[in-house]
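Memo to structure team: turn this sequence into structure tokens by end of day. - J.P.
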Amino acid sequence: MDFADLARRFADARFPNASLVLVSGSTARNERTATSDVDLLVLGDRVFSDERSSLAATFEHEGEVFEVFAYTSSGFNEWAERGVREYRPVIVDMLVSGVVVVDDGSLDGMRAHWAQTYAAGPSVSDHELRARRYGITDLIDDLADAVDPVEKHVIAFTLYERLAELVLIYNRCWIGTGKNLPRRLRELDPQLATALGSPLVAGDHAAFGQRAAYELERLGGRLQVGFVR
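Reply from structure team:
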């Protein structure tokens, strides 16, 4: 199926006044699965008929599910800047890497601006890095002490998430949520991603905790006494 044409027909039906429409995600990368939806970024100052400046919603069109992120210019800037501050600029990524469906001529200028921000990676304060080390130290200890099997699983997966995020932002890489977090870690360091993921998948919590402690040392080490939140 030609998803660019499908997306254009959807945009014409739902957002006829859009200035920019881009397909992103697995559809843009030709990595769709049986349950994939079509991620769509829609921009335009006349895209809404009311006073809203943003919309995140799911639609069905011609048998396909569309996950739409729509913004006015001010709405996009607001949410893009928020994503940058939170180290997860999803809509900036969509803008920079998406496949163009509709372009009124403004895309090149927007991409030139936001591509610089995206390429630079996150800017993280020393206090933020220390706060994350403090939280990970606590999780490593909790995992070592846990007896209940469910608690062990919950702590281990939380530890993986927090540690992977720290590794990424420490190396000035953007983080992700869900399946995108291990993907970003693999992009940064495939060997590290395997070293952390393998014991977690195997349910070897002791080995995972040891590896987590090792990686924390590489990022500055344990932090407890004396840290002021």
